[in-house]
């Protein structure tokens, strides 16, 4: 895995990170939460088991007996002339029957049929007064009260269930007495069947009464319609409606044909008149004159040609020419007169024919409309008479059918055997109780306990806002987890980390003191290998090896000093000249971990009290030097942001291969941000189950806004189980399989 290619930009919100994860990661996260709360789950499971046993021991013994009935999906038809089964497809049918079986009315019927007030199980006759309210005298009228209160008790033991996809219902009665259970299961079935028969008889009697009322009403309606028929026949003067209607229709058809013929002739005459009116006069006269116009025109043409021929010889004023000109003018006059007279006579004749055709058309149209109105009147009267006749016939047919249905209803009311409910199976005496059941109470108790335990574990996890795993840290911050350091301050877990020969408990002076100098004093331990894995991941986190590294945290007590010290040790083990600077000018601790003097240090250099070579101290670790903080100044932030600090860091870059600076927490002061912006990379230490995730996210946002080069995070004090470091976090593991030192097998695939 190439850490240089990993994205280090933090995401903006928890919702964005939660939406980007897949379902498998979510399931794994919940599984990890439940695994951490295994003690709570076991405790609640044991508690649920105890409650199940207690419930089993305290529950009363219950016996159940079941009878089965069939309810046919049909209903008697009393109005169809005979009793027959017709489909009853309303979806409320079976639910209604189920509610009737569970109802108070059927329970009271069972109580009366079996006389339960005399049964020993229900108190016997001597205890009958117990069902009467205190202070009320016991009289004969109290029977209904006794039955009603017994019925309420009887109803409580009945359960009704329909067999899916059938017309069968199972009636199960549960009680402490097996004989009572059998008796009431069968009693319910028999009472429901008898109730159905009684209902059928009552329905038949009611139907007979209703039919008689319908018959009387229908006879009165028929008499009234017959009187209306006679009266209407006399007033409309129609003897045979169908025959008179046919004659009227024939006359209407003839009048319509005559009208259409007259209309056709009028159209032809109108077209002829319009044509002659628009035709040229000479053309019209030529057609109608019988040749007179043609002969006259030929004469005029002959005279004109003769005149034109002689004009070549004689002058126009020559007497012969003058006479010939006079003949031409006379011939033209006669031709025009003949054309005018013939065309006028033709148009006048066409107009006369058109007027005659129009008058004939209008006369026949009036006759046709009169016939049409007469036909409508006859048809209306005939239709009314036919409707009256049809109504009388239909009501007589209905009357006959009702009389037949009344006869059948009378038979049904006397017999009452048209039941649609039958008992298919009778209940038998139960031989063993159905409750309490050890198989049912114990699993239910354990399941209920586990459910409550899971709810409590999830609630505790929800209220705990800290980071609990490297996966969660990377998912929420969007930064790579470069190292995972186990928790060394727990009983048992420290033995797994330090090895079988390690002490079970270590005495600490501080939260991180137990792990200080561990890669130097115990280099083969898996915990030391964790820092070497962190070293490898840090060096590969950028294309150019980071030389000036800042180590910080969100809050105090998150392991930043131990991380800086041990990372400096493993850097020095690579034969790199390494300098560890205690940049925490408020609560320095590196000098305590190394056992060196803190009389002079970084502060003295920054205020020009001494030279750098006078304050840098050697350590027992080869290639590792330390620059302690020195005396606590009143203005740490100003010193670290000064120009002399920048010059000092530039000078140190020339002298050392790797420089690590331990700085105060980010949210406490601004010292870490001031130093980080001048560094090559920043490592953010996060302690497991320590700082709230919101505080960590604010810390990352503050560093990002300032432009600090974020390399990744270091997850400290991780309370992992054996074998937990697998999968994608093998690169943050704790060794190459030092099984002799503990039961954690770790790998480093980036070293």
Describe this entry's structure for a reader.
- With 751 residues, the chain is an alpha/beta fold.
- The chain has four domains: 37-59 and 436-461; 63-203 and 419-425, no CATH class; 241-413, Helix Hairpins (Orthogonal Bundle), CATH 1.10.287; 467-723, Rossmann fold (3-Layer(aba) Sandwich), CATH 3.40.50.
- The protein is built from 23 helices and 14 strands.
- The strands form three sheets. It has an eight-stranded mixed β-sheet, sandwiched between helices. The chain has a four-stranded antiparallel β-sheet with strand order 4-5-1-6, with helices on one face. It has a two-stranded antiparallel ribbon with strand order 2-3.
- Helix 7 packs across helix 11 and helix 9 (281-288) packs across helix 11 (319-415).
- It starts with 13 loop residues before the first helix and ends in a 33-residue tail after the last strand.
- Residues 1-13, 78-88, 491-513 and 722-751 have low confidence and may be disordered.
List keywords for this structure.
single chain; 751 residues; alpha/beta; Helix Hairpins; 4 domains; eight-stranded mixed β-sheet; four-stranded antiparallel β-sheet; 23 helices; 14 strands; 10% strand; disordered N terminus
Helix content: 55-70%
Distance between the termini: 10 Å
- Please, how many domains? 4
Shape: flat
Q: Quick check: average pLDDT?
A: 77
Please give the number of β-strands: 14
Poorly predicted sequence stretches spanning 5 or more consecutive residues: 1-13, 78-88, 491-513, 722-751
Which architecture of the largest domain would the CATH scheme give at its second level?
Answer: 3-Layer(aba) Sandwich
- Sheet with most strands: strand arrangement: 7-14-13-8-12-9-11-10
- Which band does the percent of strand residues land in? 5-15%
What is the level 1 CATH name of the largest domain?
A: Alpha Beta
């Amino acid at each position: 895995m190439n850490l240089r290619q990993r994205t280090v930009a933090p995401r903006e919100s928890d919702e964005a990170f939660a939406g980007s994860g897949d379902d498998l990661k979510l399931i794994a996260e919940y599984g990890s939460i439940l695994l951490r709360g295994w003690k709570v789950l076991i405790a609640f499971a044991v508690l649920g088991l105890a409650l199940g046993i207690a419930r089993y021991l305290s529950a009363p013994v219950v016996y159940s007996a079941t009878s089965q009935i069939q309810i046919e999906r049909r209903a008697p038809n009393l109005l169809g002339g005979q009793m027959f089964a017709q489909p009853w497809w309303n979806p409320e049918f079976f639910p209604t029957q189920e509610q009737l079986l569970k109802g108070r009315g059927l329970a009271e019927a069972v109580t009366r049929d079996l006389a339960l007030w005399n049964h020993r199980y229900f108190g016997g006759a001597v205890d009958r007064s117990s069902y009467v309210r205190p202070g009320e005298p016991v009289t004969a009228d109290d029977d209904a009260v006794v039955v009603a209160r017994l019925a309420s008790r009887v109803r409580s033991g009945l359960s009704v269930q329909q067999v899916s996809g059938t017309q069968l219902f199972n009636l199960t009665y549960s009680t402490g007495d097996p004989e009572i259970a059998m008796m009431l299961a069968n009693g319910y079935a028999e009472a429901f069947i008898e109730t159905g028969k009684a209902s059928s008889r009552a329905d038949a009697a009611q139907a007979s009464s209703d039919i008689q009322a319908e018959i009387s009403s229908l006879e009165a309606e028929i008499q009234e319609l017959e009187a209306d028929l006679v009266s209407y026949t006399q007033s409309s003067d129609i003897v045979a409606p169908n025959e008179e209607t046919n004659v009227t229709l024939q006359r209407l058809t003839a009048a319509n044909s005559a009208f259409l013929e007259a209309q056709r002739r009028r159209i032809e005459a109108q077209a002829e008149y319009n044509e002659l009116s628009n035709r040229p006069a000479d053309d019209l006269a030529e057609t109608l004159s019988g040749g007179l116009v043609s002969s006259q025109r030929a004469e005029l043409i002959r005279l004109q040609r003769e005149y034109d021929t002689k004009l070549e010889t004689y002058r126009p004023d020559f007497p012969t020419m003058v006479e010939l000109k006079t003949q031409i003018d006379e011939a033209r006059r006669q031709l025009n007169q003949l054309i005018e007279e013939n065309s006028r006579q033709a148009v006048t004749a066409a107009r006369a024919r058109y007027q005659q055709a129009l008058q004939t058309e209008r006369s026949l149209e009036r006759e046709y409309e009169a016939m049409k109105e007469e036909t409508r009147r006859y048809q209306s009267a005939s239709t009314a008479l036919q409707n009256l006749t049809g109504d009388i016939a239909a009501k007589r047919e209905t009357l006959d059918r009702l009389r037949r249905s009344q006869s059948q209803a009378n038979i049904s009311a006397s017999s009452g055997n048209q039941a649609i409910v039958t008992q298919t199976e009778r209940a038998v005496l139960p031989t063993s109780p159905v409750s309490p059941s050890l198989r049912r109470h114990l699993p239910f108790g354990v399941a209920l306990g586990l459910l409550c335990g899971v709810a409590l574990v999830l609630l505790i996890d929800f209220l705990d806002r800290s980071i609990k795993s490297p996966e969660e840290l990377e998912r929420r911050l969007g930064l790579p987890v470069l190292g995972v350091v186990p928790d060394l301050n727990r009983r048992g877990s420290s033995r797994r980390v330090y090895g079988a020969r390690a002490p079970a408990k270590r005495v600490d002076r501080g939260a991180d003191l137990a792990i200080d100098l561990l890669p130097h004093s115990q280099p083969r331990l898996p915990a030391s290998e964790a820092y070497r894995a962190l070293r490898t991941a840090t060096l590969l986190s950028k294309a150019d090896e980071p030389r000036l590294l800042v180590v910080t945290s969100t809050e105090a007590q998150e392991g930043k000093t131990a991380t800086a010290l041990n990372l400096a040790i493993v850097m020095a083990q690579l034969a790199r000249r390494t300098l560890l600077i205690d940049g925490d000018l408020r609560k320095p601790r590196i000098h305590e971990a190394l056992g060196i003097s803190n009389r002079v240090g970084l502060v003295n250099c920054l205020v020009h009290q001494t030279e750098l070579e006078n304050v840098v101290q050697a350590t027992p670790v080869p290639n590792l030097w330390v620059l302690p903080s020195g005396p606590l100044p009143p203005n740490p932030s100003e010193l670290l942001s000064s120009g002399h600090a920048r010059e000092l860091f530039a000078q140190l870059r020339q002298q050392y291969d790797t420089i690590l600076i331990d700085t105060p927490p980010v949210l406490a002061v601004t010292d870490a941000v001031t130093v980080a912006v001048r560094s090559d990379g920043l490592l953010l230490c996060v302690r497991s189950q320590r700082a709230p995730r919101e505080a960590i996210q604010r810390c990352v946002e503050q560093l990002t806004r300032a432009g600090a080069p974020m390399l990744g995070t270091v997850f400290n004090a991780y309370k992992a189980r054996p074998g937990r470091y697998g999968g994608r976090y093998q690169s943050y593991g704790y060794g190459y399989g030092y099984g002799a030192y503990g039961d954690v097998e770790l790998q480093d695939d980036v070293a």
